[in-house]
Amino acid sequence: MDFRLTPEQEQFRDSVRRFAAKHLAPGARERAHSPDYPWDVAKRMAGQGLLGITIAQADGGQGGSLIDAVIAIEEVAAACPRSADVVQAGNFGPIRVLAEYGSASHKKEFLHRLLKGEGVISVGMTEPDAGSAVTDLTTSATRDGDGWRINGSKVFTTHSAYADVILAYVRFGPGVGGIGSVLIETKAQGVSRGKASAFMSGEEWAELRFENVLVPADRVLLGEGGFKKQIAGFNVERIGNTARSLALGRYAYERARQWAMQRKQFGRLLCEFQGLQWKFAEMKMKLDAGQLLLYRAAANADRGFPSAEETAIAKAFCNQAGFEVASEALQVMGGLGYSQEELVEYCLRRCRGWMIAGGSIEILKNRIAEAVFERSFSQRGSRD
Ligand SMILES: Cc1cc2nc3c(=O)[nH]c(=O)nc-3n(C[C@H](O)[C@H](O)[C@H](O)COP(=O)(O)OP(=O)(O)OC[C@H]3O[C@@H](n4cnc5c(N)ncnc54)[C@H](O)[C@@H]3O)c2cc1C
Q: 145: buried, middle or exposed (CB in 10 Å: 19+, 13-18, 0-12)?
């Protein structure tokens, strides 16, 4: 067993590090406080080969492994936490599901543009009455001639304010087996956005409403029975979410570490107080443990989808660790940490969201418990 990166991975890491230091570190603070998507970063990353890292070269990607994409998130986030979202959008999110299951025409119409950093795709799973219980979704796809008529709505969708296409989970028929997905352009007739809102992170979102949206047959990504495949692909999204939790926790830790070596109180450096040293020891233990779980899930996936169990363990642990580390780092930095002069408070706010997004910590623990007891546990009450 070898816990080190390969020479090729080290080379890739160093090149992303140089790129991030030169192009992303300047302006990191402004980007974090802007609700806009950093399109300039997306285009630059496309030029650098950082979008589509795990997507096949034949489809316009780099043909790399999941661990390469994780390394990219780590290095980008260390220079500019907000830009890590661009790595996510271009590698881990619905783009990967599109690349895996999309037809040649889907790739031509959507994927190539996304890989150039000229557009972004959202995944619309969550609905007002279907959050953790995602299979309760009611957005319907009913036959209309050769195509489908979509009715329903999605909430909390990341990038909903500006995405040009939504990979929407829809119901073709009853039960879990009736769920599949379609690609809906946000400019299509019948698509509208509700009241603009924002997460605690500052990212904007708005309810996406579909009223008699006509979707041609060739815009179905996965038809009836597609749910399991969609969720298998969604584990990649979870790895990106996991990697960002840990990377932003690490960013906060690094700022606090630097601060503790220069800030003096009572005539001593902060790092000389044992009460703070133990905080740093705890932070480091959490970051290192999280990294091993993250790398296990990503490395075992190689170029495929990661295992649901290893992903759940990594995500639940790293979501918690990232948030706790960011919180302790903020505490160590006192008023400065709580201020927008530093990005530590931003990292804390972002990490808080990932404890809910992409499968909350509780839902992931339910999945882990199934692995522990080697059986499934219905979460539904007897009245269901
Ligand atoms: C920052 C952010 C980004 C998001 N981006 C997207 C996106 O791009 N696309 C998308 O479709 N959705 C997105 N979401 C929505 C997210 O997937 C849901 O918020 C999440 O699935 C939880 O659903 P809910 O908010 O309805 O909470 P609920 O399902 O109502 O849950 C409320 C609480 O109860 C707990 N709970 C529920 N059921 C159980 C159970 N069986 N056992 C134990 N605890 C339980 C939950 O863990 C949670 O703490 C995003 C959310 C956030 C915060």
A: exposed
- Ligand 1 geometric centre to CA of 353 (Å): 10
Q: Tell me the mean pLDDT in the region 38-51.
A: 98
Atom of ligand 1 lying closest to residue 154 CA: 11
Question: Is the confidence at residue 382, as pLDDT, over 80?
Answer: no
Model confidence over 190-201: pLDDT tens digits? 999 999 999 999
Q: Note whether 338 and 353 are within 8 A (CB).
A: no
Pocket of ligand 1 (CB under 6 A): 122-126, 131-132, 156-158, 199, 353, 356-357, 360, 362-363, 366, 379
Residues 6+ apart with CB under 8 A from 63: 54, 55, 56, 57, 303
Counting from 1 in the atom list of ligand 1, the atom nearest the Cα of 124 is: 11
- Ligand 1 atom nearest residue 379's Cα: 41
Distance CA 108, CA 206 (A): 28
The tokens of 64 are what? Answer: 């790399």
The dihedral built from the CA positions of residue 133, 136, 139 and 140, taken in this order, carries a sign that is positive
pLDDT at 384 over 60: no
The Cα–Cα gap between 365 and 266 comes to 44
Q: Which two tokens stand for residue 111?
A: 């994927």
Check the CA dihedral 72-77-83-89 and report its sign.
Answer: positive
Closest to 165 measured CA to CA, from 209, 121, 117, 216: 121
How confident is residue 334, by pLDDT bands cut at 50, 70 and 90? very high
3-state secondary structure of 204: strand
Closest Cα partner for 70 from 342, 300, 370, 283? 300
Q: What is the pLDDT of residues 154-170, one digit of tens each?
A: 999 999 999 999 999 99
pTM tops 0.90: yes
Cross-strand bridge partners of residue 153: 209
Tokens read off for 363? 């839902």
